[in-house]
Design a protein that fits this description.
Immunoglobulin-like, six-stranded antiparallel sheet, 319 residues, 2 domains, alpha+beta
């Protein structure tokens, strides 16, 4: 009888010892299978991004296409952003159009504009630019897409002054057709601020011409030319690299997939290559190291990546 009790006791101890290991391997197996599924989706996203960039040469559009593939199948961890994004751009104001600092740069009209955001934060996951429409006297839009000036992210209550350039052809168009320039903030491939309820700011040809004439007279009076700074020159990048976000220094992500950081695009002049990453949260120690030997054994994320390359297309089009 005593021997039977000892046997039962040993069985209980064995079960207690084996169960944690069994659970660990079970969860690890599930996450490995999950990673394999993610691998297929990420590779498809990379193919779509590379193809789009090869055809249209547009990094923002390529990231958008990759985001559509991934968000249509996998959770991105950014689902809460959709609610805020619906009202993004609804509180844009154009505080100042400073025609006192207007200038003529080889026919282009240049002047500062101060943009204020009184609505929800505007994030630059896609390019945020100041642009304009050209409309006739009845308010009908004649030119929808004016020249762009980068603005970037704007938090609620934040303002930023940028230098808007109106190309000579648009300025002449305003003169010949008596058109009005209407300032409008745009988040590329997403929205115009006017579509979200933010009023445009109108500037007439007469106002621009009068300001230019005054500026010209002042220049003559001073007897010297005026240098107009259009902003810092773009930083040089490595050959064959376009809009690449650097590697993550820390393995602590805020979401599973961020197209602005996790879609890297390269162009070597012959092939357009896209590398897409997706991050899976794990509770299994050492499992991330199975996929990436460079990470710590205690890393919290599994990084799954896909890569694709397409040759440059000879013909380009509009998406």
């Amino acid at each position: 009888m005593q021997k039977l009790r000892n046997h039962r006791g040993m069985t209980t101890i064995e079960v207690l010892l084996i169960t944690p290991f069994a659970l660990f391997f079970f969860m690890a197996a599930i996450q490995v299978l999950q990673a394999l599924v993610v691998q297929n989706v990420v590779t498809s996203a990379a193919r779509e991004a590379a193809r789009t960039y090869a055809v249209y040469h547009d990094a923002a559009l390529a990231r958008q296409r990759a985001d559509e593939v991934i968000s249509g199948t996998l959770p991105t961890g950014r689902e809460g952003e959709a609610v805020a994004a619906e009202s993004e751009g609804s509180g844009v104001e154009y505080l100042s159009v400073n025609l006192f600092q207007i200038s003529n740069d080889k026919g282009d009209v240049v002047f500062p504009v101060t943009v204020l955001n009184t609505g929800p934060d505007i994030v630059s996951d896609y390019p945020v630019n100041l642009s304009y429409h050209l409309a006739d006297g009845q308010g009908k839009t004649v030119v929808l897409d004016g020249a762009r000036t980068a603005v970037g992210s704007l938090k609620k209550g934040e303002s930023r002054t940028v230098t808007l350039t109106v190309p000579q052809k648009d300025f002449e168009h305003m003169k010949n057709k008596s058109l009005v320039l209407k300032l409008d903030l745009v988040k590329e491939y997403r929205w115009w601020a006017s579509e979200r309820g933010s009023p445009t700011r109108s500037v007439t040809y007469g106002e621009l011409k009068t300001a230019l004439d005054v500026a010209e007279e002042l220049e003559k009076a001073r007897g010297k030319g005026k240098h107009v700074e259009h902003g810092p020159a773009p930083e040089a990048t490595d050959k064959g690299q376009l809009s690449m976000s650097g590697p993550h220094k820390e393995k602590e992500y805020t979401c599973n997939f961020d197209p602005d950081k996790d879609v890297k695009l390269y162009d070597d002049g012959v092939y357009c290559t896209a590398v897409v990453e997706y991050h899976i949260r794990t509770i299994c120690p050492a499992l991330p190291k199975l996929f990436n030997p460079d990470v710590s054994a205690w890393a919290k994320w599994i990084d799954v990546s896909g890569k694709a390359a397409f040759k440059h297309e000879l013909e380009t089009g509009t998406p």
